[in-house]
Design brief:
The complex is a heterodimer of chains A (about 250) and B (about 290). With about 250 residues, chain A is an alpha/beta fold. Chain A contains nine helices and ten strands. In chain A, the strands form two sheets. Chain A has a six-stranded mixed β-sheet with strand order 6-7-8-3-9-10, with helices on both faces. A four-stranded antiparallel β-sheet of chain A has the order 2-1-4-5, covered by helices on one side. Chain B is an all-alpha fold. Chain B has helices at about 1-25, 35-50, 60-80, 85-105, 115-120, 125-150, 155-165, 165-170, 175-200, 210-230, 235-260, 265-289, and strands at about 110, 205. The chains are: A alpha/beta (about 250), B mainly alpha (about 290).
């Protein structure tokens, strides 16, 4: 599904503060994979995710998504296949728009936004059903502004919004970093459930080693812009939480 | 009484521009100074064609296209050339001054002897009532169109752009183009206000747009107070509060004039009034804490 070939990203080329964020990374991630990426701050995890989403363009190397080269495509042209959930719960939703309006936009991720009024009773009923699955009681508050919800609620809705339209790749950039433990668990479980239900290729960046241990069928550790460890499903099941901890000591 | 009625009329005429400011300021968070130029542009285009005895209705499209081009220019300079939004607006406003002066050919063009929008149609005998009916109808139609656009899928994407660009880009929207289109719409509406005002007052003036952005801003901020107070989420109602804001603004200015304040001080009063409505809430909340 995702194929990275000799990917490099260097910031501030030719300046004193030149930094190599991602160095010669080659990586193939399959359909149905739930990959967890761990690593210290500045190890290049986020840059790698940004390269895949198109938020950052590579200095050299190639990126293929579903067999198609997208190395130089800007983010908004890659969005048909990719959805992202950000660390900041406020980035993934529009605060001034109502819940239902946010979902309407999410439902049009791969389509043109025309001058048609898309929020009708039919659409509302459909979304209410989807949101009811979260068990947060938000299905009765569709007209409420997104900004009035808590970070955990917004993050869970962002996840749900991601699967509103045809989706292949789900990028989770520390989605629970700003949440309390209970909301964080709920969001992670939802991510797991959606990955299975919609057969997604999911990449999770996290500093929470418990999450790294609990979720996903592949774990990658990054250090100084390179992949230092890459364990597949069999090796990951054998892994203990303490072993992951020891990677960071 | 007529004094206040004409203030209401002016407020209605300026509502179109207030809608524009609502889009640029409230939705995109861009203080769009090119408003001053686009408003005058609308005025001088109308002035030029009406003085050539063109029908008032026929030129409305031309006026709006003119405003839209000005807005698109600001949007282009800001997004593609990465110039600060304020500076982009000032650049366009400055350039428009020369363009406006060239179109008008003189600094002031009286239109009293030419038929305007408000003299072509005669529903009421009383000219003030007649004008009120026409302006109110135009603004009502505008309210319906603008609120429809903002409620449509396209409008949702536009409104989300001002909220979270990260989200909107991830949703497959080109935020740069969205801003350019949004500013074009905003300035087309602004030009429409210049068009209405020129015909209401019976003249076009090269300086008619000076400080007009502040008037729009004040109207939107007053509207916003109501929006927050009543927790309004419907777009049509939001636009309605903006109209109310624009009318109240003109009424306050009319009241100030009726107190016998020197008309030369009108801009000073306008600025002070806007400062008051921007600063007062913060001042009050600080005391309450």
């Amino acid at each position: 599904m995702i194929d990275l070939q000799n990917l490099n990203k260097i910031f501030s080329i030719g300046k004193a503060n030149r930094t190599t964020a991602v160095q010669d990374v080659s990586l193939t991630i399959n359909h149905n994979d739930f990959v967890v990426i761990v690593g210290a701050n500045g190890s290049g995890k986020s840059t790698l995710l940004n390269l895949i989403s198109g938020n950052v363009l590579p200095s050299s190397g190639k990126i293929f998504i579903a067999g198609k080269e997208v190395s130089r495509l800007p983010e908004y042209k890659r969005s048909p296949a990719i959805a992202r959930v950000f660390q900041n719960p406020f980035s993934g939703t529009a605060a001034d728009l109502s819940i239902i309006d946010n979902f309407r936009l999410a439902a049009l991720r791969t389509q043109n936004k025309t001058l048609k009024i898309g929020v009708n009773q039919n659409f509302k009923n459909k979304i209410a059903q989807q949101i009811a699955q979260l068990g947060m009681g938000l299905e009765d508050k569709l007209e409420q502004a997104m900004g009035s919800l808590s970070g955990g609620q917004r993050q869970a809705l962002t996840l749900l919004m991601a699967v509103m339209d045809d989706l292949k790749i789900l990028l989770l950039d520390e989605p629970t970093a700003a949440l309390d433990p209970r909301s964080a668990d709920k969001v992670m479980q939802l991510a797991q459930q959606l990955t299975q239900q919609y057969q997604l290729c999911t990449i999770l960046i996290t500093h929470n080693l418990k999450d790294a241990f609990t979720y996903g069928n592949r774990i990658i550790q990054m250090a100084e812009g390179e992949i230092s460890k890459d364990l597949d499903a069999t090796s990951k099941t054998k892994l203990t939480q303490n072993e992951i901890f020891s990677w960071f000591s | 009484m007529d004094f206040y009625l004409s203030a209401i009329l002016q407020g209605l005429c300026l509502s179109a521009m207030a809608f524009g400011i609502f889009i640029s300021m409230k939705i995109f968070n861009i203080p769009d100074i090119s408003t001053d130029g686009a408003y005058t542009l609308g005025g001088v285009i109308s002035g030029f064609f009406i003085s050539q005895s063109y029908n008032g209705f026929a030129i409305v499209g031309l006026v709006m296209v003119g405003g839209a081009l000005a807005g698109a220019a600001t949007g282009f300079i800001h997004t593609k050339l990465k110039v600060n939004a304020l500076l982009a607006g000032i650049l366009v406003m400055t350039a428009l001054y020369s363009i406006n002066l060239s179109i008008l050919g003189q600094s002031n063009l009286p239109l009293l002897n030419f038929p305007t929008l408000f003299t072509v149609i005669n529903v009421f005998q009383n000219p003030t009532q007649n004008t009120f009916l026409i302006v109110a109808t135009i603004i009502l139609v505008l309210l319906i169109i603008v609120s429809y656009v903002l409620k449509s899928d396209f409008g949702l994407a536009m409104r989300a752009t001002g909220n979270s660009q990260t989200m909107v880009r991830a949703l497959g929207v080109n935020t740069d183009n969205m801003k350019i289109i949004g500013l074009a719409i905003a300035n087309a509406l602004t030009a429409l206000s210049g068009y209405l005002m020129t015909q209401l007052q019976g003249f076009a003036d090269i300086n008619m747009g000076i400080g007009i952005v502040i008037v729009g801003l004040g109207s939107v901020i007053m509207g916003e107070t109501l929006i927050n107070y009543f927790a309004i989420t419907s777009v049509a109602k939001m636009l309605l509060t903006v109209i109310l804001g624009a009318i109240v603004f003109q009424l306050v200015l009319a009241f100030a004039l009726s107190l016998g304040i020197n008309p030369n001080l009108l801009k000073l009063i306008t600025a002070a009034f806007v400062l008051l409505i921007v600063g007062l809430p913060r001042f009050i909340f600080k005391k309450a804490e």
